[in-house]
Every structure is written in C-alpha cells, then in structure tokens.
UniProtKB/TrEMBL annotation:
Keywords carried by this UniProt record: DNA-binding, Transcription, Transcription regulation
Domain HTH gntR-type: 13-83
Protein name, as recorded: FadR family transcriptional regulator
One GO MF term: DNA binding
Length: 251
C-alpha cells in the first residue's frame, strides 16, 4: 500500500488560478474567441464572486500565458488573443541552442514531419487547400528569385503544407521550426544575390509535381516524392552550412 508523505502537502489552487482556469477553458471551448474583449470587471467580479485584486491576478495569469492582451490605460479591457505556434518557437529555439543542436538536427526533424503531412493532405485534403498551395507557387515563388525572398517564400510553402494537412500536432511542431528554418535557409543563400536558374526551376517543378499528386489524392506517392525533395533540400543547405549550430543562426 502506498503511503503519502506528511512532508509533502498538496497545495490548493488559489482563487485567482481557478478563475483563470475557467476563463481559459472558455477560450478553449470557443465561448471567448480571438479578438473578443473580456466582460467588464464588475460583471466578472459578480459572476465569479471575487474581489477586484483577485480578478486582476487571474487576468495576469492569462496574460502570462499569452491568452489575453492587456493595453495599459485602455478602457476596453483585456482582449482575447489565441496564440499560434510562435508562442513556443522562441523557447524551443533556446532549448535547441542549449543542447548544442545543429542545423542538421533541424533538417532531420523537418524531413520526418513534412512527408507524413504530404500524405495526410493527399488522402484527406480538399481542393481549397490544394488551391492555396497552387497560389503560393504561382504568385509568390516566381517573384522570389532573389535569394532572401526565395527563402521566405519557399519556407511559407513548406509551413502551409503541414498546416493544411489537418494534424494539429504536426502543425505546432512545424510552427516551432518555421523561424529557424527560414533563417538558416536565408543564411545558406546569403552569399547569392539570386537563386541559380537551374535550382529555381528544379524547385518549381518539384512543387508542381507535389500539387499534382495531392490533387490526385495519391498519398503514398506524395509522401515518397516529398521525402526525396526534403533529402535533396537538406543536402543543399548542409553543403552551405555543414556544421553550423542553431545559435549561430538565431543570434
């Protein structure tokens, strides 16, 4: 029989934490949506039966969690801000720096995530999702022959591919890697004023082929093609940045 140590009492949540938890659940459930203002203080105090200091402490908890935005001096009150993957991107980048991770580590993670996302998008995606990727290819990539813009445009295509797959977990991880990915690609291309025509055309053909496979709902072929694409992309970046660490790019 397991015994509970008398020296380790269980701490009861503070009232402010309970209020914050309830408001947080309302945001999760969609009862409070992104951009909504919280009800005014008297209304919330009456609803929860708490004092003004307790309510304000609860709001500070939500603010620290990046769930509400408080503008000092504003009369409109706290505003709901539903965060995206960027909320964990910086802490994740710091942890990668502390662990001594290299760009190769980041590329391996991307190569594991994106082909699976391509298969999911091919199997379960809708025409609207494929049209969005097509629009990125047609509208953004052709205008991004200059190296820095090319890095940003292609990274956007990769990120949206994962997000459109419909898998929230993969999307969150892709969002975490997005900033690092864009920066290291930009660094790899920084010595070039523009992308070589042959490389540019190869990327465009690969993107076009992927979109065709997605529209054909051929998940197996889409995954296989994108795995080859990611392997080739990784080799190109690592050739320019063979041993660079994440912190060298994030600084």
């Amino acid at each position: 029989m397991t015994t509970v140590s008398a020296t380790a009492p269980v701490r009861s949540p503070k009232t402010a934490e309970l209020v914050a938890r309830t408001l947080r659940q309302m945001i999760v459930d969609g009862k409070l949506k992104d951009g909504d203002f919280l009800p005014n203080e008297p209304e919330l105090m009456a609803h929860f039966g708490v004092s003004r200091p307790t309510l304000r402490e609860a709001v500070r908890v939500l603010e620290s969690q990046r769930l509400v935005e408080v503008r000092r001096g504003s009369r409109t009150g706290p505003r709901v801000r539903v965060p995206g993957p960027e909320i964990v991107a910086r802490p994740a980048g710091l942890l990668l720096e502390l662990s001594g991770a290299t760009i190769a580590d980041v590329l391996v993670a991307r190569s594991a995530i994106e082909p699976v996302a391509a298969r999911l998008l091919a199997n379960n995606g809708k025409a609207k999702a494929y049209d969005e990727l097509e629009q990125i290819l047609v509208d953004d990539i052709p205008t991004s022959v200059e190296a820095p813009q090319f890095a940003a445009a292609t990274t956007h295509f990769h990120r949206r591919l994962v997000e459109l797959s419909g898998n929230a977990t993969l999307s969150m991880i892709a969002g975490m890697l997005h900033e690092i990915t864009e920066r290291h690609t930009a660094v790899a291309l920084s010595r070039k004023r523009s992308v070589p025509k042959a490389d540019y055309e190869k990327v465009v053909r690969s993107y076009r082929h992927l979109i065709n496979l997605l529209r054909a709902h051929d998940g197996e072929a889409a995954e296989a093609h994108w795995r080859i694409h990611m392997d080739n992309s990784s080799k190109a970046v690592l050739k320019a940045l063979p041993t660079i660490k994440v912190r060298d790019v994030m600084d």
